[in-house]
């Protein structure tokens, strides 16, 4: 675990499964446009949340790249799930801006709902093919810029990484940017 304090916020990286983060009020789903249970993060979140999540999602789909929508967490230990659609690397342009919007819009939803803690996966770095080093820089830079430019609500922001290698990459970027 690596964490830093910045302007009264705690920004942390953690290795683990996004669907097993009981201390966080909201978790983010790296969703598909139709908000259907998929593989990776979306698969883990939907199977832990149960069928009611897919039912609520059905009414909110489709979403566009960079957009974020919020639902209840159902059987997850988290009160909310924020679903965002990352860019498919090499297809959705401008990909860096779209990926940044995923983080920005998710944090804005937290502010609107007064959510204190949020966990992000490394959006777009799995099936969607975004290189992890580049995605990590965009994620962490956007978190910092969002804190700098708005009085945002969440005081605890966590990036949950599935592999040791991805965690190592994010730790280096966290140190560099903050
Ligand atoms: N917890 C945390 N991180 C995970 C988990 C997990 N349970 N499972 C995978 N990762 P991905 P994307 C990591 O593919 O690239 C889905 O099918 C994974 O190693 O879940 O945005 C959706 O339905 C990678 O680093 O999301 C969409 O169609 C990162 O999380 C599409 O994939 C993101 O991998 C979205 O693709």
From TrEMBL:
Residues of the Macro domain: 1-178
Entries under Pfam families matching the protein: Macro (PF01661)
Species this chain originates from: Rarispira pelagica
Listed InterPro entries: Macro_dom, Macro_dom-like
Record-linked CDD domains: Macro_OAADPr_deacetylase
PANTHER family, per database record: GANGLIOSIDE INDUCED DIFFERENTIATION ASSOCIATED PROTEIN 2-RELATED, MACRO DOMAIN-CONTAINING PROTEIN
Protein name: Macro domain-containing protein
Domain of life: Bacteria
């Amino acid at each position: 675990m690596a964490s830093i304090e910045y302007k009264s916020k705690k920004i942390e990286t953690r290795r683990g499964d996004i669907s097993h983060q009981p201390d966080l009020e909201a978790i983010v789903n790296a969703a598909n446009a139709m908000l259907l249970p998929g593989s990776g993060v979306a698969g883990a979140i939907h199977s832990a949340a149960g069928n009611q999540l897919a039912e609520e999602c059905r009414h909110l789909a489709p979403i566009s790249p960079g957009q974020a929508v919020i639902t209840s967490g159902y059987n997850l230990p988290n009160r909310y799930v924020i679903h965002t659609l990352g860019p498919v690397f090499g297809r959705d342009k401008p990909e860096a801006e779209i990926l940044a919007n995923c983080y920005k819009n998710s944090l804005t939803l937290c502010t609107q709902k007064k959510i204190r803690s949020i966990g992000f996966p490394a959006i777009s770095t799995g099936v969607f093919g975004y290189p992890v080093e580049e995605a990590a820089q965009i994620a962490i830079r956007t978190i910092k810029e969002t804190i700098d430019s708005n009085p945002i609500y969440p005081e605890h922001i966590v990036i949950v990484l599935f592999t040791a290698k991805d965690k190592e990459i994010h730790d280096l970027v966290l140190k560099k940017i903050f």
